[in-house]
Design brief:
The chain has helices at residues 2-19, 21-28, 37-65, 72-97, 103-126, 134-157, 168-189, 195-201, 205-225. By secondary structure, the protein is mostly helical. α2 runs antiparallel to α3 (37-65), α3 (37-65) packs antiparallel against α4 and α4 packs antiparallel against α5.
Length: 243
C-alpha cells in the first residue's frame, strides 16, 4: 500500500506541475502569444483547484480514519467536484472555440453550455455524491466529443492545402480527446469502487492528463512559431503599366 501511495503522489506532483508548463510558455513567449491567454489562465486555475482538491481529500481521509463525522465534508466535496467539472468543461470549450468557425454551431455551443450549467445547479441541489459527480462528467464528455467531432468534420470538409497537424487546435482536440477517453470509464464507475480500489487505480488517469497538458503545450508552441499568414495582392488585369 505504501508503494502505491508513493506512486500516486509522484504522479500527482507531475500532473500538478505539468499545468504550470502552460503559463510558463505563455510568459516566455509573451511578445508573440498574447492570444494564448486562455491556456495560461487554464493552467493556473486548474493548478490551484487541484491543490484545493488534494487538501479536501486529506481532510476527508483524516476524518474517515479518526471516525469523525463532519456534515460539511459532503458539501465541500460536492461543491468542489461540480465546480471543477464545469470549469474544466468551460476551458476546454474555449480552447476548441477558435478552431470552430461555423456560427450556427457556435450558437449551439453557447446554448448547450448554458443548459449544462443549469443542469449542474439542479444536480447540486437534488443529488448526493459519494465520490465524484459521474453523471455531469458523462454529459461533459459527450458534449466535448460532439465539439471535437464537428471540428474534424469542419476541417476535412473544406479544401485546404495545409496539413492538419500544423493547426494548433488539432493538438488541443487530440489532447482533450485522449484525456476524456482515458478517464471516462473510470470516472463513470468510480462511485461503484471501494476507497481502497480508488486509491489503488486512480493515479492511472493521471497519465492521460499529463499527455493532454503536453499536447496543449505543443499547440501553444505551434501557434507561436508558425509563420504569419500574408495576404498576396494580385495585380488588376490590364492595369499593369510596367509591361
Amino acid at each position: 500500500m505504501d508503494k502505491i501511495q508513493t506512486i500516486e503522489k509522484l504522479f500527482l506532483y507531475i500532473v500538478l506541475y505539468s499545468y504550470l508548463l502552460l503559463p510558463l510558455i505563455f510568459f516566455v513567449t509573451l511578445t508573440r502569444s498574447k492570444k494564448l491567454i486562455t491556456f495560461c489562465i487554464y493552467g493556473l486555475v486548474v493548478f490551484l483547484l487541484l491543490n484545493l482538491g488534494n487538501h479536501l481529500k486529506e481532510r476527508f481521509l483524516y476524518h474517515l480514519s479518526n471516525k469523525i463525522f463532519d456534515p460539511n465534508d459532503e458539501l465541500y466535496i460536492k461543491s468542489y467536484t461540480i465546480s471543477y467539472t464545469y470549469i474544466e468543461y468551460l476551458f476546454f470549450t474555449l480552447l476548441l472555440w477558435r478552431g470552430i468557425i461555423n456560427q450556427k454551431f457556435r450558437t449551439s455551443i453557447i446554448i448547450l453550455s448554458s443548459l449544462f450549467f443549469l443542469f449542474l445547479i439542479f444536480f447540486f441541489l437534488n443529488t448526493s455524491i459519494s465520490k465524484i459527480d459521474t453523471i455531469p462528467i458523462g454529459i461533459e464528455t459527450i458534449l466535448l466529443l460532439v465539439y471535437i467531432l464537428f471540428f474534424f468534420y469542419q476541417y476535412f470538409k473544406k479544401i485546404d492545402n495545409r496539413y492538419i497537424y500544423n493547426e494548433p487546435c488539432f493538438w488541443v482536440a487530440v489532447g482533450i480527446l485522449l484525456y476524456l477517453g482515458g478517464s471516462f470509464f473510470f470516472n463513470i464507475l468510480a462511485n461503484h469502487l471501494s476507497n481502497t480500489e480508488m486509491m489503488k487505480y486512480y493515479y492511472v488517469t493521471y497519465i492521460t492528463e499529463i499527455i493532454k497538458n503536453l499536447l496543449l503545450a505543443l499547440a501553444m508552441l505551434i501557434y507561436v512559431f508558425q509563420p504569419k499568414k500574408t495576404t498576396v495582392v494580385k495585380p488588376i488585369p490590364y492595369l499593369d503599366m510596367t509591361s
